[in-house]
């Protein structure tokens, strides 16, 4: 039996995930859904943001649907999501950016780089260690190459880096080039800062962009501009043995608790989960229903509408059931 963990987390995670969960349950009527409570609210209640039992449960699942967690800027508080990505070794963060005119995907290395978690925080000096390994660069490059081949858009694989200033990026860039060349794939190597602007100006010139952890984090939020905002962008966190699907956005405390968050990023994350389980047709049905809902302008305030989170979720599900 397929086992899916449902993690709502904090803030709008509690509002958008139930909408995505309904759609998963529609397509997976026989799956076992296991609700896992973790995040900042949980930390406030119990003193632990993610218990050992929670982590064990996540590891036993076929896939995880994840909302968002609040990470307070307290040096004593470690990001739960970083911990989960490390524990489950979810090394590839796949972030598609798709709209009528845009179709690209950011492949972000998800376990090392500047989010290594190796830090020394002091009064007068704080340091964070940026870790780049050949093995880590190779596996993310391989993932990006296979996506590039699968998508077949005849566009070179783009490597986003800053090897001129960050010498650790020479290893990342060169490993990516070696992997791509070994598969006869054309590559374009670009400085991440210039890339950030160019992808917004000319998204049509891009297909797969592979980059390190923090650059990918920033680049994918910026690409929200191409699709109508953060409420639209889904992502997959994939490892050899585990997979977790989540919207790119965070817990959005500024709009939480008002039933106005856009659930589309979460719904699309559920579609990516189904595709991961081999249910590509079902995933396509979800995307079609999202498109129909958008055309009907049943949208939340971030997209200029006045529909609620639940209205949008229920409309998408209704469209799916009609097909
Ligand atoms: P955020 O992504 O939560 O919000 C940024 C802005 O986008 C806010 O104005 C918010 O209202 C808007 N927004 C985000 N998602 C939306 C949606 N679905 N519909 C409509 N509007 C939406 O990022 P922010 O404000 O920097 O961080 C808030 C908290 O979330 C922090 O504690 C942060 O650490 C955490 N966070 C968690 C992430 C995760 O769990 N994967 C990712 C990013 C941030
Ligand atoms: Mg982010």
TrEMBL record:
GO molecular function, one term: homoisocitrate dehydrogenase activity
Top-level enzyme category: oxidoreductase
Top-level division of the source organism's lineage: Archaea
Matching Pfam families: Iso_dh
Keywords, alphabetical: Oxidoreductase
Cross-referenced InterPro entries: IsoCit/isopropylmalate_DH_CS (IPR019818), IsoPropMal-DH-like_dom (IPR024084)
Documented EC number(s): 1.1.1.87
Domain Isopropylmalate dehydrogenase-like, first and last residues per copy: 3-316
Entries under SMART domains matching the protein: Iso_dh
Statement: the UniProt record of this protein carries the keyword Oxidoreductase: yes
Example of a GO biological process term: tricarboxylic acid cycle
UniProt record similarity statement: Belongs to the isocitrate and isopropylmalate dehydrogenases family.
Protein's name in the database: Homoisocitrate dehydrogenase
Native source species: Methanorbis furvi
